[in-house]
Each structure stands twice: as structure tokens, then as C-alpha cells.
């Protein structure tokens, strides 16, 4: 599975979506139960879940009349790996500058 980092980080840029993801990573929640937790409409929560789903951070499972949202930890780990790689590259560049190597890349 390849992570669309732009979509993942855009989805994670919103505090409500981060909170929804944190909740569903531990235990699945129906969209309606999630909607009761936030001071916004059911439709607004549905849209947040849709953004998370498009980024691959959550999946939905139909149980009767409800859709249960589950977090996708593997996708979140891959996004973390992308950040780790970026920071390691930056740190190496800083180390090169501090060593006086004129070939440091940004």
C-alpha cells in the first residue's frame, strides 16, 4: 500500500479529524456515535470521516443500518515513516553544515 502523503497530511491538518482518528484507532465507532461527540451536524462529521477515508486513514464497515468507522494504523505508520525520512534528511543536512561541508542539501 502506497500512502498519498499529501492527502494524509491534509486530512490530519484538522483538529476534529485528528480527534476522530484517535478515537477510531482504539475502537470502531458508528458515524452517528461520533456525531454525538462534536458540536456540529451529523453531515459535518460525515464529511470529516469522508476526508479521512479518502486519505486511507479510516475504513467503514456496514453493520445493519450503521456504518462503523475503523482507523487504519498501517497508513498512519507509513505517514510517520515519511516524516521520519524527511527529518533525517534535514538533520543530515544540518550536520553537514556544522561540519563545514559545502555540499549540504536542503
TrEMBL record:
It comes from the Bacteria. InterPro entries: ArsR-like_HTH, HTH_ArsR_DNA-bd_dom, WH-like_DNA-bd_sf, WH_DNA-bd_sf. Pfam families: HTH_20. SMART domains: HTH_ARSR (SM00418). Residues 1-94 form the HTH arsR-type domain. This is Winged helix-turn-helix transcriptional regulator. It comes from Paractinoplanes lichenicola.
Amino acid at each position: 500500500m502506497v500512502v498519498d502523503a499529501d492527502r494524509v497530511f491534509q486530512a490530519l491538518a484538522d483538529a476534529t479529524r485528528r480527534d476522530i482518528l484517535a478515537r477510531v484507532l482504539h475502537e470502531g465507532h458508528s458515524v452517528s456515535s461520533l456525531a454525538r461527540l462534536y458540536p456540529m451536524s451529523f453531515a459535518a462529521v460525515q464529511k470529516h470521516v469522508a476526508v479521512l477515508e479518502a486519505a486511507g486513514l479510516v475504513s467503514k464497515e456496514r453493520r445493519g443500518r450503521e456504518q462503523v468507522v475503523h482507523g487504519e494504523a498501517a497508513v498512519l505508520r507509513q505517514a510517520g515513516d515519511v516524516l521520519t525520512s524527511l527529518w533525517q534528511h534535514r538533520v543530515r543536512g544540518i550536520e553537514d553544515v556544522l561540519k563545514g561541508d559545502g555540499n549540504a542539501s536542503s
